[in-house]
Design brief:
single chain, elongated, 62 residues, 2 helices
């Protein structure tokens, strides 16, 4: 998956799922911790994509 819009949509869906799980099971539940890790990886993927494209489009200063 490489489209930022798709990644953002997945992040939003996973964020809602994390909130639901935390509300139903508490913050220390294994499902909540696992979902948090999934969300972290999606956010990292999005940031890697943005970071890579940010430097690809920069012009040298000298």
């Amino acid at each position: 998956m490489s489209e930022p819009k798709q990644i953002r949509d997945q992040i939003e869906r996973n964020r809602h799922e994390l909130s639901r799980l935390a509300e139903n099971h508490g913050m220390q539940d294994k499902q909540v911790l696992r979902q948090s890790m999934v969300l972290d990886e999606l956010i990292n993927e999005y940031n890697r994509f943005k970071y890579k494209n940010h430097f690809r489009n920069r012009q040298p200063i000298a």
